[in-house]
Amino acid sequence: EDYSGDLIYFQGHASPGAYARAFLEARLCEEQLEHFRQELAEGGGLPSYPHPQGLPDFWPFPTVSMGLGPIMAIYQARFMKYLENRGLKPPNGGRVWAFLGDGECDEPETLGAIDLAVREELDNLIFVVNCNLQRLDGPVRGNSKIIQELERIFRGSGWNVLKVLWGSEWDAIFEKDTDGLLVKVLGEAVDGEYQKLTVESGEYIRNWFASKDPRLLELIKDLSDVQLQKIKRGGHDPQKVFAAYNNAVNTKDAPSVILAKTVKGYGLGESGEGKNITHVQKKLNEDELRAFRSRFGISISDEEVAYAPFYKPAEDSPPAKYLQEKRKDLGGYLPKREVVAEPITAPKDSFFKEFHLGHNRPVSTTMGFVRILSELLRDKDLGKFIVPGKQHRRLTTAL
Hints:
By secondary structure, this protein is of the alpha/beta class. Helices cover about 40% and strands about 10% of the residues.
């Protein structure tokens, strides 16, 4: 009750994941899922990307075209600080989170205002960059390293930079790396190599380490080929992600960015995990569906798999109850758009009388607009919300 709540700018391409979770929580029905990308369907469908116009109680913000989410998050966080500093919002917390992709960082809007976030000390702002090293049709930086590039950019601007690269299974291996050899080899490997390692066998991975330095084999000798193939990257390890989030929310006087290393298409297995085709992979065949079902322990029979049914546990099952209880403990569902502000009373018709009547001599747009602002500033209800400045000058120019 004493916390104002967080605002989230979801990565546009992550919308199916948010819809899937909302279905598990009984917030969306099968008919809505069937009409994904069919907003004009009978009964209404789900928009491709986050947008409150189609789902006014669901998506808080529109975040596509790519890059709009990150830059809007910066200005949203700045605006919240502005409201608090002028007594228009109680200083009861509330952070702005922006989830974005590493390829999305090439959009000029994504990084165009990050210096502003530092200058304004926006410690209520957190970027989470999903670094799966891949864009639409291949690696983001095939022969380079996008994570190091982004680290350099954000750290140079003054952000608190947190890298979540390796899962917990790596901890014991790094402890044995007393000479820093493993850290050196992994730090020098380029993104194209990592994407290759993602789709290859454990035997290939072992031979890759041997080709870099035979001494590395001693560090991984206790891991089977299957373990080497399945060992997680940091962005898929809840403990590592939690640690990064905990650091970010407790950082003062600076924004934070979490660079989370992941695998594109994580969970798809042979049908698309870490492959160049993953971005455009729309359907799985029956064998691929069966493998996916088995990997995540979903209660769908072999006969049902062919029909690819929507699945969720029964409402009275332990998993469903747990999900609902935790969302209640955390203050409600996400994403969710709530409008709690009281509507502002519009000026009476008499306010506009002089503007409707016109003037006995030509008046410039700027003069007319300044006259309106002057009257608004005197209004006892609206005056405190009017802030003259450069933006108004630009607006009159546009008019």
